[in-house]
Amino acid sequence: QILSDGKVFIHLCNYIEPWEDLSLVQRESLNHHYHQNCGCQITTCYAVPCT
């Protein structure tokens, strides 16, 4: 989301990052802690943009 002042605002529910670019800790966190404690839906995206 781009704010009126030109800054980009990213909250946890619109975080998009290629899986191969994530560290092992980030992958484990997304698969376990984040998935269990977040109201967001985690989905796999095979093409950009995700649909």
TrEMBL record:
Alphabetic keyword roster: Disulfide bond, Secreted
Gene Ontology CC, one term: extracellular region
Gene3D superfamilies: Tissue inhibitor of metalloproteinase-1. Chain B, domain 1
Localization in the cell: Secreted
Recorded GO MF terms: metalloendopeptidase inhibitor activity
Positions of disulphide bridges: 45-50
InterPro entries attached to this UniProt entry: TIMP (IPR001820), TIMP-like_OB-fold (IPR008993), TIMP_C (IPR027465)
A Pfam family assignment: TIMP
Protein name: Tissue inhibitor of metalloproteinase 4
Species this chain originates from: Mus musculus
Gene designation: Timp4
